[in-house]
Amino acid sequence: MTLEALSAGKYAAYIWPAYAVSALGFAWMILDTLARARRWKRRAHRLEGEEEG
Amino acid sequence: MFSALANPARFMAFSRWAAPILGVIAVGLIGAGLWLGLNAPPDYQQGETVKIMFIHVPAAWVAMLAYACLGGASFISLVFRHALADAAAKAAAPLGAAFTGVALVTGSLWGRPMWGAWWVWGDARLVSVLVLFLLFVGYMALRASIEDEAKSARAAEILALVGLINLPIIKFSVEWWNTLHQGESIMRAGGPTLAPAYLTPLLLAGAGYSAAFGALWLERIRAEVWRRRATSLALRAALA
Fold this sequence. Notes:
The complex is a heterodimer of chains A (53) and B (240).
Chain A: H1 3-6, H2 12-52
Chain B: H1 2-5, H2 8-38, H3 53-80, H4 83-115, H5 124-145, H6 149-163, H7 166-176, H8 196-239
């Protein structure tokens, strides 16, 4: 990517916040989804183990 | 394929590898789309702000896709009483809300330099997308507000089905009413009006956002299946 592509001229104050909001949205979706999946998987496995033991 | 995946064990086996594959595809497509988009020439009317299109439009597309998935899964759950469909509906709502929120904020950041306003209450496209956001939030609030999970699911599913009427309203709002929002330029009779320099990165980013939604949706359904299993095991242990 060239530096020219990253220059947004007088509209930079609108363009880069829009990209930042999108990145934040994706970051929240990814982190929340993975944390949720990990937490419930671990809890289910623990309870399965307790039931068997 | 759908009936095969309706079995939770088969779904878990399928989604275990499908979710990461979709995630990798999403990274590749979004990366390629944004690289081409950021290197596209400034638009003759909108100048450099056209760069916002490559993140705003895909977010809006996927917001509608997420609601279609929420509505479809709610219908299957309501009619066939299928637990996995209910889990799928529940898993789609927060993702849909996030994509709609991103579409609204990036649209506002695009609208300010182009229209001179952050928000226009009289614009049917803007307001109908805000209604979509409120439908996602309302669905989640309804599910959280009733303690009995079966009852909360039924109530939320009915809301989701009623809200489906908003999808054609969003799609055709720019044709049915006078709006500041630009008209349909891609999915229209006669073909897209966008130049290839913009259309190609936009379609790549759109496919990438869709794949990202698919990966995250599958993973959230998996999380919901694990949660239900853990809840059922905890209840069984408490009763023993």
